[in-house]
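Request: Have a read of the protein record below and say how the chain folds.
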Amino acid sequence: MKKLTVFDATWLTEAQAKGSNDSWAGEVIATPEGNIYLDILRLWFDRFPLKSIKDRRALKNRLESFIRSDHVGGVNELSWWEFMCRMNLNAEPICTKTTPRPDFKVLTQPEFFVEVSTLNVSETEKKKLKKEGAVPLDHTETLRRLLLKAANDKKDQISYAASSQRACALVLFDYTTWSGLGTQFFRFLANALLGKGFEFAQLPVELSALVYVERKVIDGRVGISRDRSAIYHNPCATHPLPISTFSALRQFRFQMVETESTSLDHWIWL
């Protein structure tokens, strides 16, 4: 397979020409911490086991995109694969086909599938920030967008897993305006999915679990928050995911029974 590299000299020159106000790239290349971040992504990309050169090129294009949402989408896919490796889960990316498929198949028994997605800042929030310089803290709106992802946007990927008689977890990285600011959205989500609201009843039974992730880059290193990330098990699932899966994160199941991680670390560094 032809070797592809990311963030090479040509890309760096283009990023510098665009200037620091144009995209995420200008901010990154201006600092030593940013160089660490790019080096980590280069390493992850090199060892990411995609077999198709077409898929590797598509991932390279997303990572190098100066559009923030495209870039973080690619980074999140790599981040979750690295996380699964840290959890000793043997996983492989699934090659792109005409029919939508999940991003990963986990080969560790029992086998299951994982689809990774991102909640970006909404267009409404962008306009409000630009016009008024602030947006209200609205967990209900974030919940609405999250449920839409699970019920509609990722329905085909989730159905593919069910057709294989396997569980499927939908992993959602939160990049909305209030993400990472200690709002305890993960508890609001637990109550909505499994408590009084019981929104899981409105979601596909093919969805085994929903994983909510807050990710940050600190000093160039990528970390997943143990305090505010969580996995929610669907009590209606046709193919349940074992409770012990992704045990490094908080676990919520029927009637909001919570299992916390025993680690004292606030971050899982990838």
User: Anything to note?
Assistant: The mean pLDDT is 89. The CA atoms of residues 3 and 57 lie 10 Å apart.
